[in-house]
Amino acid sequence: MIIPENLNTAFENAFEKVSKVRFEMAPDIRLQFYAYYKQATSGDNFAHNRESNVISAFKFNAWMQLKGMPAKEAKKAYIELANNVLTKNKNQ
Q: Which GO terms describe its biological process (predicted)?
């Protein structure tokens, strides 16, 4: 379990690691990362450009599905997903 004082640091570290990934990730996994990140950093302050493309619509929908999730929980979920994805790829 992550100590609350270290949550922001752990989240930032996980984000850096995921940002540097060079292997192909499934689109649904990338959407999960996006949604958890947006919920962790912006909360329920949804903003969507109605004239955007299909990819933007999928990203917005993934984020909207997390409506009401506290930032702390979104950060924990992001970290857990990052650990799972990075560990799985490391073992392959």
A: fatty acid metabolic process
